[in-house]
Amino acid sequence: MKVLVLGATGNLGSRLVPALLNHGHSVVAYVRSSSKLESLLPNPVYRQISVVQGDAKDSFAIKKAILDSKADAVVNTAGLAALPPWGKSDLPVIFRAVLDAVREAGMERKKPLRTWFLGGLGVLNFPETETMFSDYIPIYLEHRQNLALLKSLPPNSVDWSMLCPSTMNPESSDITALSSKGKLIANAVTPPLWQNYWVKNIPLIGGYLTCMMNAPRYETTLEQNAELIASDLETLESPFSEKTVGVIDPK
Ligand SMILES: NC(=O)c1ccc[n+]([C@@H]2O[C@H](COP(=O)([O-])OP(=O)(O)OC[C@H]3O[C@@H](n4cnc5c(N)ncnc54)[C@H](OP(=O)(O)O)[C@@H]3O)[C@@H](O)[C@H]2O)c1
């Protein structure tokens, strides 16, 4: 597939570029600064990709980049959610711009565009409930409004998935190194291998304590998540279409 990556200079995006190439995809990096990307990536990697310079808040430019490059899929890693519940970042504006661009590009092509977005653990549901993790631990709340936008889309307008990891750590300072750890276990809508502890039954704080005890179990690596997206984009019909996706390292 030809994949347009927004945020290719970031922690995840920079690792996604080599992971996509390793899976046989072609990469178009949409970045604010091509010279920053060039200084980040080793020359043999940089020479294998196309680069478009632009702002991720500029929906028109993103749509043009998708159509001009004939991209089959888009991954948005641009923008970083604010941590405190009162925090504000550029992510919601970026998210909407990318979403509008992929929706309109899909309409022009008469085929919904496969698109991965980034969310966080907080927008996954407790197993067998509609309660979100962030109902108990209200951080990174901008992901909630982004997910609400995806859920309000008319059916079949964007073939989206939202990857919802907890903290992602680097395995290596070499951003071109592929993951040496095992594959992540991924699950739609709820965190995989969720554990219920006895504290769950404590009135008022049981849910909060269960989240706090589960949270560290969901730390993964940037390389593992890059691998998951790159490998999903090899499939024509993803099991994660129109779903949030939780991940855990089985080890
Ligand atoms: N890192 C984690 O542990 C973690 C965990 C869960 C979820 N997430 C989510 O995953 C996503 C990626 O995280 P990350 O750690 O890779 O973020 P990051 O390292 O901060 O990267 C953000 C990227 O966004 C780009 N960007 C920001 N504003 C832009 C704009 N207006 N136009 C074009 N590009 C723009 C930055 O480009 P410049 O280089 O030009 O600034 C950079 O490449 C975020 O949405 C984050 O909330 C991250």
TrEMBL record:
Coiled coil ranges: none
Top-level taxon: Eukaryota
User: Which PANTHER family would you find in this protein's record?
Assistant: FLAVIN REDUCTASE (NADPH), NAD(P)-BINDING DOMAIN-CONTAINING PROTEIN
Q: What is this protein called?
A: NAD(P)-binding domain-containing protein
Query: Gene3D superfamilies of this UniProt entry?
Result: NAD(P)-binding Rossmann-like Domain
Residues covered by the NAD(P)-binding domain = 7-173
Which molecular function terms from Gene Ontology are attached? oxidoreductase activity, acting on the CH-NH group of donors, NAD or NADP as acceptor
